[in-house]
Amino acid sequence: MSSNFQLLNDSSDEDDRSRTTETGTIITNHNGVGGGNGGEQDIELDRPLLTSPTIADIDGVGAHPDESALILEDIQFRDDTNLQQEQKQTQQQQQQGGKKKVPLWCYVILVAALLAMSSSGPALKKMDVPPLRKASWRLQVTSIMLLIGFLVDLHTLYPLFEIHLAKSFVGVLPAGLVSSLPISWQTVLINVRQTKFASIDERRTEQSECRARFLSWKTWVILTGTGCVLAGHFGMWISSLNKTSLSHSLLFVTSNPIMIVIVMVVMRKPISKGEIFGCLIGFIGLVITMFDSLFLTSGPVNGIRPTVYGDFLALMAAVCIVFYLFAGSNLRTWMSLYLYAFPVTFIASLVLTFSSLIFETMPVAKEGQNFGVFGWASPAFVWLALYVAFFPGIVGHTGVNAIIKYVEPVVISVTLLLEPPIGTVMGYFVGEGEIPGIFTYIGGPIVVAGCGMVTVASYFRNKREQAATQTADVSNVSLDVDVDDASVSSSIASSNEIMMDAIPNQYSNLSSDQVPSVVVEVDDSK
Fold first, then answer.
1. 502 vs 522: CA distance, rounded Å
2. What is the value of pTM for the model shown?
3. How many contiguous H segments (helices) and E segments (strands) does the chain have?
4. What string of DSSP letters covers 503-521?
5. What's the Cα-to-Cα distance from 11 to each of 429, 463, 516, 517, rounded to whole Å?
6. Residues of the chain with pLDDT > 70: what percent?
7. Left if phi > 0, otherwise alpha if psi is -120 to 50, otherwise beta: which for 380?
């Protein structure tokens, strides 16, 4: 933003006298100093002027009343009250704009993701493979599916070829196919085709900071630690499927909202009363559910009888996923999805593969079976391995990531709490589940209700914190305005004194109505 100080003599024509910018004009009178057509000097101001001159200030220059009115019409400075009102209106417009109707396809994907993730437990129980080897296969296949996205993101981070994937894809589409698409889709494709993308050097320069952070040793320490935690989650959860009932395994492993509250209390993080209350309710439900593991003596109709050890493994898997979320939260603020997901998943698969080689003994392989490191590709296991990697992994987790832009996170989180009962029903119908005991029927709904309370309370706590942050920002802006008004006025006074010292003395004999005026033109558009 620049300000032009001009010397206007009373004898200049009316057009020159009323020459101001659209954003505002300040005129000050300097008695006893002559002036003429004078020079012009550009003075940089730190901030826009937010103070308005009075009628007396304008009349003091000897301007005509009509000219004063004309100048007043050009003045559009905002005071503190107007600034706050405009900011409140902007916030209201943003809130109203954010309340868009959720597309129907988002709910379709949410339901598909829920069913896909719920089927993970029964599908894994179908694979008669030692648990750590099974977990390593699960993450190996998922890593292969994530590899394509990782290479695309890596090319974006450091482009090796002068090629733009989106533009190249649109360029090879047949004209007949494009013409058959809806008009809105055709417009998007045309815009992509006509867009002028940055050169390879410009793209490398733009990504230099992100690339440096990605290659730093601190980032890879966090990625390695996160991969180890993810390996612990899958290793303990899949092991729990062989040690306790399917319903107990799913209930305990999905209790991570309760575990998050416990970890936040230990770390002394801010937390609401609603989250604490929901945590207590969910913990009571977990204790009630565990009574089946303690007191159930008769065997299940099918599946495995619940045990305390198996329940504990599933609970520790929930704790691991809490630390997984905490560890990766700072990386995902600047790192793309596949650039983060592939290294973490691949590291976890390596940890589980080596753990399986060290701690597990493979059974004798039957016809069509292979229990080797890549045994998932054998005919006996390939379809189940592809299923648990694609549907629970890609359709489930990636589907949730796709709709989180349109659906409130609290809606997604509460919906996914239905995974334990749906997974239990699925397992029963495929012969891998069991009829839960009486305490599971009592404690299970309490666990789900407690997790729901924690999720909803956490959502509203975050909303309150965001609102408080916005209010603090508005207050800081108002305080800055008050301080800057004084500093700008002081800067103008100092600038005027400097300019008056530079004016020749031959105008000192002029009368007061012929004294030149200093006009400050402020252009806020820059």
1. 22
2. 0.65
3. 23, 4
4. S-GGGTTS-GGG--EEEEE
5. 98, 61, 9, 12
6. 66
7. alpha
